Amino acid sequence: MLTMGPRGTKDILPDASEQWRFVETKIRSVCDLYGYKEIRTPIFEHTELFLRGIGETTDIVEKEMYSFTDRGKRNITLRPENTAAVVRAYLEHKLYADTPLNKLFYIGPMFRYDRPQAGRYRQFHQFGVEAIGASNAAVDAEIIILAVQFLKALGLTELKLNINSVGCPKCRPVYREKLQAFLHDKLDELCHDCQSRYDRNPMRVLDCKNEKCAELSQGAPEMADCLCDECNTHFNQLKNLLKTANIEFVLNPRLVRGLDYYTKTAFEIQYSPLGAQSAVCGGGRYDGLIEECGGSSTPAIGFAIGLERVLLALEKQSLLPDFEGTLDALVVTLDIESQSVAFKILCDLRKANFKSDMDFAGRSLKSQMKQANKVGAKYAIIIGEDEVKEGSVMLKNMQTGEQEKVETKDLVDKLYAEVRD
Ligand code: AMP
Predict the structure, then answer these.
(1) Picking from 23-37, 45-59, 70-84, 150-164, which range would have the lowest pLDDT averaged per residue?
(2) Whole-angstrom Cα distance, residue 182 to residue 192?
(3) CB atoms < 10 A from the CB of 225, how many?
(4) Strands ordered across the beta sheet of 66-69
(5) How far apart are CA 65 and CA 78, in angstroms?
(6) What is the dihedral of CA 297, 298, 301, 302, to 10 degrees?
(7) Residues 238, 292: contact at Cβ < 8 Å?
(8) pTM of the predicted model, to two decimals?
(9) How far is the CA of 142 from the centre of ligand 1 (A)?
(10) Ligand 1 pocket, residue 114 CB under 6 Å
């Protein structure tokens, strides 16, 4: 047990960290481009926030939360997603006072007691974006385009953008009734979960993964046919804006979120080569959530992208760059006596911003030179008894094999000329 992490968790080892950094750099540059600012909230919140912010009838709240009582008897939950926490921070810090539209993004770990499998973990990471304060369909288009541009900037192809409108508390009840009427005779054949969804959240039956439920809900009425004028106009505007921006999309009436505070736009981006866990991005408008969390009625929209899945997709398409390390110089010592002089030189090199290192394990000259090759050092700086006496070093260009004696006091300037030219 002590040598194994908990089920559903993954260590990100040094090589993989480079890949994560690569993806995170792309996130920051695309968010910068679109004017989204980073927000970092705690990884745990009061459980109540998620009961309200995600909804008590959702799988996340019913089955997947890591909740516990802390030593102060508070009910705490490790965040299973971050929209509710961002909304909490938005209200707590009155961000609405600064600007009418807050454009925020986050990157961080989320926790769900899910059944682990490829692309599904108990601790996973999301990059998410929230635009709080605007009802304009252009904001829906902006964040959808941001998500698509981010995934495309990584080089991913075969992406499929699904969109739908889930209406609003005005038009949804009409649809709900129509859907319940359609499902009524099939109720006994639906899976256990869907039977309980029928009353509480019938739209969720439409995205049930159970084959039988999918079959039974074929031909169900579609929300798009029941949208009120406002929702219909909003949806048409979004479609037009996406078309104008040359963003391909598919209308998917099964893309639903049955809770009252989800409104209008729902979208998902799929990367089908990932198979069962093909959803890389899920998002939508939540015009009712801020009020649900105690604020005044404020329109908002957001998405979350699963970063493990993005990395799996990049691996599938061989899009992960080679992260060969490079070093300006490796300081090599011929004997133990030279080590303190070598260490001083190493400190000076680093102070002068040369990426440099040395061997601390007392290895032979041969293995130190091998190491210099392995880490891609541009120079080896070789120091032995003679060099220590003379106040010099042997500077070896690892590419050409040429070497020359350089006085230690001139080393930094010499390297500047060589490395930075
Ligand atoms: P959701 O918050 O459920 O809408 O999920 C948004 C995205 O997060 C999904 O499209 C996935 O890419 C990712 N995701 C959700 N749950 C998991 C999980 N258990 N493991 C890995 N990625 C996940």
Answers:
(1) 45-59
(2) 18
(3) 10
(4) 44-46, 75-78, 66-69
(5) 7
(6) -100
(7) no
(8) 0.92
(9) 21
(10) yes
User: Of ligand 1's atoms, which has the minimum distance to the CA of residue 114?
Assistant: 19
Number of H helices, E strands in the chain: 15, 16
Cβ of 308 less than 6 Å from ligand 1: yes
Mean pLDDT for the chain?
94
Q: Give 396 Cα–ligand 1 centroid separation in angstroms.
A: 50
Atom index in ligand 1 nearest the CA of residue 121 equals 20
Report residue 8's pLDDT band, with 50, 70 and 90 as the boundaries: very high
Supply 386's token pair: 């003679």
Tokens of 288: 């009712």
Ligand 1 contact, 112 CB (< 6 A)? yes
pLDDT above 90: residue 298 = yes
Walk me through the domains of the chain, giving residue ranges and CATH numbers: 14-171+227-316 (3.30.930.10), 329-419 (3.40.50.800)
Tell which phi-psi region holds residue 55, choosing left (phi > 0), alpha (psi between -120 and 50) or beta. left
13 contact partners, CB below 8 Å, separation of at least 6: none
The SS3 call for residue 314 is: helix
- Asked whether the beta carbons of 146 and 30 are under 8 A apart, the reply is yes
Is 357's C-beta closer than 6 angstroms to any atom of ligand 1? no
Query: Which residues, in sequence order, are CB contacts of 125 under 8 Å at separation 6+?
Result: 107, 108, 109, 110, 306, 307, 308
pLDDT band at 256 (very low <50, low <70, confident <90, very high): confident
Q: Which of 50, 81, 309 has most ligand 1 atoms within 8 Å of its beta carbon, as the pocket-test mutant?
A: 309
CA 146 to ligand 1 center in whole angstroms: 18
319 has a pLDDT exceeding 80: yes
119 Cα nearest atom in ligand 1: 21
